[in-house]
Structures are given as C-alpha cells and as structure tokens.
Amino acid sequence: MDTRFTELLTPFLKFLGEQEITPDAPLRELGLDSMQAIELLFAIEDAFGVTLADDDMNDDTFATAGSLWSVVHAALGAHHGADGTQVRAA
Amino acid sequence: MSAPTFAPARPAPAAGPGATAVADRVARVAAVAAEHVERTDRDASFPLEALQEMRRTGLLGLLVPASHGGLGGTTDDVVSAGIALGRVDTSVAMIFVMHCQQVAAVVRYANDRLREELLPEIAAGRMYLASVTTEAGKGGHLLSSRSALAAHEDELLLDRFAPIVTGGEYADGFLVTMQSPPPASPHQVSLVYAHRDQLTVERSGHWQPLGMRASHSVALRLTGTLPAHQVVGEHGAFRTIVTTVFGPMAHLGWSACWLGTAAGALSRVVKLLRSPHTRGRVDLDSELLLTRLSRARQRIDTVHALLERARQVVASADDLSVPRVQLLLNALKITAADECHRAVDDLVDAVGMRHGYLKDSPTRLEHSLRDLRSAALNYSNDRLHLVDGKLALLDAEVRLA
C-alpha cells in the first residue's frame, strides 16, 4: 500500500491508536463510519486524481485497508491505461 | 421477576408450509389477537393469548428449516404474516416479525451447536425470542455498543441495560448486541444469544406509551454468564448480520406491519360506509369524502408497491450493501412509516369525530393512529434521512434498484 494512502486513512480511524495500518486492518472496527465514506472518497480522489466506480461503494471495498487499496490501485491502473500518461502524484 | 409459564406447547406439525397452511396459522393467531386487542391496548399489556397461539400453531417456527422441525418459510411468508396480523393488531404483528428477524439471524449465522440447541425448540413453539439492540446514550445507533462483553476462559460475562426491549418480559431468549471482548473498539459489535434461565432479568420503569401499547417494550437489565458458543456469527460480525439479515428483515417486516395496520383501518372504514346501518346516512358523493378515501388508498398502494419491490430486490440482489439497495430499503421504511400514518390520519378526517376520534368506533382509527405514530420513531426516520443523504452522494449515477 502507498504511504500516501495510509496517511490519508489515519484520521478516519479513531481507534487505531499506535498500531500501523496493515492490509488486513479492519476499517469499520478501527472507527471508519459509513457516514464518513464520502469524505474518505473525496480524500482519495484529491490525493490520487482518480474516481472510484459507484459499484465499488460496497461493504467489501470498505472492509479492510487492503481491500480499499486494491480498488484505488485498480482505478489508478485504469487511469494510467486510459490516457497513456503517468498518474499525477498528489 | 420470574419467567412466564405456559402449558407445554404441542409440537408443530412437521409438514412444509405452503402458502395456505401458513395463512391458516396466521389467521388463527389474528383471530385470537382480535379477541383481546381492546384489553391489551387499554391495559398496555402483552398479548399473551396471541403469543400462545403462535406457539400452538407452530408459527414461531415459521423460518426454522423443515429439517429442524420448523415450517421452512421464507421472508415472503414473514411479510405476508406481518400484513395480515397488522390488519388486526400492530403490536402483535411487530412482536411476530421481530421474533422472525431474530430466528433468521440464528438460522443463517449461529454455529451448528447453537442451531441444534435453539431451532428445534423454536419450531416446537417453546421459544419466543426478543431483540436487545437499544442502549442508553448511543442515540439509536445500531452498529455500535458501549457495553463490553467480558470473556473469561470459555465463558462470556454479560451485563447489559437496554431502555426498550419489545416483549422482553415474556421472551424465552434474547439476542443481545454487545461490544466484542477486549481489545475491541465500540465499533466491533457481537451478537450473543442468552436464554432467560441463564440471566438475571431486572425490569425498571413503567410501560405507559401513546401507542404500540401491547408491545410491552420495557427497560431491562440483563446479567449472566454464557458459554462461548452462544455468539451468533463470529465476534465483531454484527455489521454483516445487519446488512444481510437484520436490516432487510427489520425494514420489510416493520413496513409490512404498518401497511397491514393502514389497510385494516381503511377496510373497517369502507365496511362502515357500506353497512346497511350507515347506508343512506352518509353522502357517498361527497367530494371531500371521496378524495380522502382515494388519498388513503393511494398511500397504501404506494407502500405496497415499494414493499413488493424491496422484497424482490432482497431476494435477488448479490450484494445488499451497495448504496442503491440500502437506499431502497431505507426508503421503504421511511415511506411506510410516513404514508401509513398519513393514510389513517386522512381517514380520521374522512369520517369525522364520531368514527374517527372516539375509542369505541368499530373503525378503531384512534388506536391505529396511535400505533402508527411510533413508526417514524422506530429507528428514527430523521436518522435514516441523514444516512440516505450520504448514500445518495455515493451514487452519482443514481442507479435505481
């Protein structure tokens, strides 16, 4: 997982404490609230310049840091492939 | 306080349900509910006779698979039963659909040992289950809990206060949400089963509400020690149970009860207007009356259509967690709560003071209106609108379920 991604996630996880965010970190249990999903989505879009598909807005995507990252990562790939340019770093 | 005592229930017939068989059993419960509805509402007392009939007819085991002695019914059967019972008594209907919601969670998520212990007992009519999800100070938030389960070797220590437990004083067992054992966060919620004889059950306060008086939804403190296998699903799995079973069953079941209540109210009004006694004394060409009847009927048909659609989507969708499905299920609950109440309110205007406002009218609109006033508060519409606003933002394409 990209460090920008874990840094972006941290403020949403109020029960994270001193733990490190690993791919299997359970986002809901660590404090991600469904009411915050849109804010998290905006943060991801701003940081990575990608738009996540509406169909990815489900419980599986938001289950763990790894599952969310894989969706972001896939969107980055699609973005890269679509216009043939490097993905802009935030 | 002691557990209620009943004569041993006759075992449920082993045959599979079939729509007629279920409808017959529901009709028997409805008939018993009708005999006692006036008294249970007046006294705010639990409908023990209707519960006893649910035990006797095997209806408490509606969702228990036939392999465990139950009727092997479906969510569709629960919805139909909710509507039919709601026509007679909203409290009885709610008691039944909420029991079914608990059974559905046990059927789908309990481990084999717990299923073997519970399902035959439910099917035999010996077990009425109540839900303990409310908690002081969390504002109705279903997916968090501040009361932590303590794990001690192979046991779970339960100590839980709940301000509202429908039928709690008469339940044989409870499904209780608790914060998972340490080091869990308040967002890690477990669902545990507790049998009444495993608990000390203390009631506090009085039950004296505006409506839903027979639901006897008292405040309880439950304390006890439970074997570890009585966790339903894994620790922390309550969110999944809510998305797949509890949420859909709650919104479909409640909406069915409210729809039945409004449909029953309209039916009684129309029968009154058509009765030989009233005929000729009411102007059936009154445009005000006709418009009000039309509006009430329109609201009822709207809720019915939405309920039918939501029921199809729940039966067929691969993933109930996506925004469009969550939005549809929430829209069902919000719309049913608002429109069923307004339908009966329309009817009060339609028939006026004598038959719309007085307790002793055969229309029983006064009772239905009081019951339906709770609908918007029962998992608050205000809270659901906030959730739906956020969900709407997540669905930019506005995909319709």
Tell me what you see in this structure.
The complex is a heterodimer of chains A (90) and B (401). With 90 residues, chain A is mainly alpha-helical. Chain A has a single domain, classed as ACP-like (Non-ribosomal Peptide Synthetase Peptidyl Carrier Protein, Chain A, Orthogonal Bundle), CATH 1.10.1200.10. Chain A has helices spanning 3-9, 37-48, 65-83. In chain A, helix 1 (3-9) runs antiparallel to helix 2. Residues 82-90 of chain A have low confidence and may be disordered. Chain B is of the alpha+beta class and 401 residues long. Chain B folds into three domains: 18-128, Acyl-CoA dehydrogenase/oxidase, N-terminal domain (Butyryl-Coa Dehydrogenase, subunit A, domain 1, Orthogonal Bundle), CATH 1.10.540.10; 131-232, Butyryl-CoA Dehydrogenase, subunit A, domain 2 (Beta Barrel), CATH 2.40.110.10; 238-393, Butyryl-CoA Dehydrogenase, subunit A, domain 3 (Up-down Bundle), CATH 1.20.140. Chain B has ten helices and eight strands. In chain B, the strands form two sheets. Chain B has a four-stranded mixed beta sheet, with helices on one face. Chain B has a four-stranded antiparallel beta sheet with strand order 2-3-7-6, with no helix packed on it. The termini of chain B are far apart. Classes of the chains: A mainly alpha (90), B alpha+beta (401). The A-B interface holds A 15, 26, 28-31, 33-35, 37-38, 41, 54-55, 57-60 and B 143, 184-188, 236, 239-240, 243, 319, 321-323, 386-387, 390, 393-397, 399.
